[in-house]
């Protein structure tokens, strides 16, 4: 599966996802500038992305813990998610995300 | 006046704390500086209640529990803590020792400095609003140090966590007007605080807006109004003279970047025998260092602390022979630990 990620400069990167990995892990592995300070524990809101182009609605909805943690993210939009909470799977092949400002 | 000690440690997270223990066994005295107001670093700031499963010998331990256990372990060595202070300067003295200064004016002189600063200093998250820097310190604040400073102000608080709610409640009686702005009608905060805030709003003592701050307007650092954006992207101007955003903390390398150390992608390059940086006498352990094969694990930091301590001993006490001993069998170590 592919992840299409837009960085903070607006450049688009097509990255190979891996089933079972989180989108955060894939972005970090591709050395995109995602802080992910807590390492994927849904505890810091520094892996914040916008899920664009209709992909937000195709994801299973965020957990209460993620919705709460988004309160600590900056510039939250209706399509905001924490990328450590999105799992790669064939159903989201082609998902588009934009790394939120820091 | 400068404090003199054997080892100055930047960071009182788990690795800085364990360094106190390893150095203490070798009779080295320590002072620790941490920007947070309590020990534990990421463990207590980011995930105090999350269980950790990979600390050897502790099948399950939370960040807070691990910190508490480490504090208990280092107690016999009486480390001195300087909390709420950011290590801001490092200077080599003519006698070969180092002088570490903090933003509170504390000066610590020691032959050895250990950087155990994790991901750097925890600093408030700054909302990505154009030009916000120009207002900081004057009309945009990230913390409330003196409540009196906010008396009679027209305050805008942003955020949905405990800090945002607590300060909304505490500043409401002092403020001329107070508005809380949050992107949703839900909060990551204690329920009683949320109830209290809603009560204040219901009685017209504060305003609560479901919106986000898009732009700041003012001159010479003095805020005059902000642009808020609510549901359906509807935008309006909101008058206020003070803006206090509360979005928690993030880690920034901060002044350590200017210490003249050899950095690789904001990490301090060290050798794997002593975990010393390329600057003699300056060591780096835990998440802040890098070397081939580095793993950012608490257990790796513990190992690094033990080896660092051996090397630090030779710098602090160049004419003494290091006697390697085990806590199980050494009565002198047991005496230091207060168990013999």
Structural features, described:
The complex is a heterodimer of chains A (102) and B (340). Chain A is built from 3 helices and 5 strands. By secondary structure, chain A is of the alpha+beta class. Chain A has a single domain (2-99), classed as Ubiquitin-like (UB roll) (Roll). The longest helix of chain A has 7 residues, at 23-29. The radius of gyration of chain A is 12 Å and the shape is globular. Chain B has 340 residues and is an alpha/beta fold. Chain B folds into 2 domains: 2-123 and 250-336, FAD/NAD(P)-binding domain (3-Layer(bba) Sandwich), CATH 3.50.50; 126-247, FAD/NAD(P)-binding domain (3-Layer(bba) Sandwich). Chain B contains 7 helices and 23 strands. In chain B, the strands form 7 sheets. Chain B has a 5-stranded parallel β-sheet with strand order 6-3-2-10-22, covered by helices on one side. In chain B, strands 1-9-8-7 form a 4-stranded mixed β-sheet, with no helix packed on it. In chain B, helix 1 (14-25) packs parallel to helix 3 (63-74) and helix 4 (162-171) crosses helix 5. The model of chain B has no long low-confidence stretch (mean pLDDT 96). At the A-B interface, helix 3 of A face loops of B.
